[in-house]
Specification:
268 residues, alpha/beta, Rossmann fold, two-stranded parallel ribbon
């Protein structure tokens, strides 16, 4: 589903997306394609990536490259191929990510290092590879996937929290360092979103009941809803926005975490 697309908004522009084969990445690829962009897509899931490239081929220019974003060399190769194929680079969406559960004393150090590598190192690699190419194109936009888990803590998600908080502050620093070059950097901070990575959460009745209690809008979000914000931040409509982190969470982070007093005082 691609809702509210703006036809032609990215005509003549080249967009690179990591973690593109599913979830928010795939929804964003569909959104950018519907708005006229040429796409360079990367994902470690070769089969899923090939399927998406085939799907979007009839819409506009698109290419895919199997990429492990925890590898500097592979991210560099993905970015170089985008320019080789399409002659420029205008937008980079550093989106790939994973999670890991475990309290600090119990978390396998390998799981910690893998989470940091995929969620944080990849964003550094993506920015490092992209900025010279964006500069050569006369400027552009970087959008990074952080999380509301990078704004506050979660029980048992120390590795994920640490990585996403670092993504948010790296985004701010990149925005400061390159604003005068016409390069903007912003982050999306999703809350609970219905994707393949959250399937186990969605299938857990207790977790969903807890979410229903905590999300003011009363539902989890859709990947397409995040894709719309990504496209906005990458577009000229956001030309004076840089260094921002946009929460896409149904209102979760609008609350302090205290009890819903209306239920006690008004029966709401």
């Amino acid at each position: 589903m691609t809702r509210n697309a703006v036809p032609g908004r990215f005509a003549g522009r080249v967009v690179l997306i990591t973690g593109a084969a599913s979830g928010i990445g795939a929804a964003s690829a569909r959104r950018f394609s519907a708005e006229g962009a040429a796409l360079m897509l990367g994902d470690v899931n070769a089969e899923g990536l090939a399927s998406l490239v085939k799907e979007l081929d009839s819409t506009g220019p698109v290419a895919g490259r199997t990429t492990d974003v925890s590898s500097l060399e592979q991210v560099e190769a993905l970015t170089a191929e985008a320019v080789e194929r399409f002659s420029r680079l205008d937008v980079v969406f550093n989106n790939a990510g994973i999670g890991a559960y475990g309290k600090a004393p119990d978390l396998d150090p390998e799981a910690w290092h893998r989470t940091i590598a995929v969620d944080l190192d990849s964003v550094f690699y993506g920015c490092r590879a992209a900025i010279p190419r964006l500069r050569a194109s006369g400027g552009g936009a970087i959008v990074n996937t952080a999380s509301i888990s990078g704004l506050f803590g979660d029980y048992g998600l120390g590795a994920y929290n640490a990585a996403k908080a670092a993504v948010m502050n790296l985004t701010r620093t990149v925005a400061l360092d390159h604003a005068r070059e016409g390069i903007r950097a912003n982050a999306v901070c999703p809350g609970p979103i219905e994707t393949g990575l959250t399937t186990a959460l969605i299938q857990n009745t207790g977790i969903m009941e807890s979410y229903a209690e905590r999300i003011p809008m009363g539902r989890i979000g859709l990947a397409d809803e995040v894709a719309g914000v990504v496209a906005f931040l990458a577009s000229d409509d956001a030309s004076y926005i840089t260094g921002a982190g946009i929460a896409i969470d149904g209102g979760v982070t609008a609350a302090t975490g205290q009890p819903n007093f209306t239920r006690f005082f008004e029966g709401g």
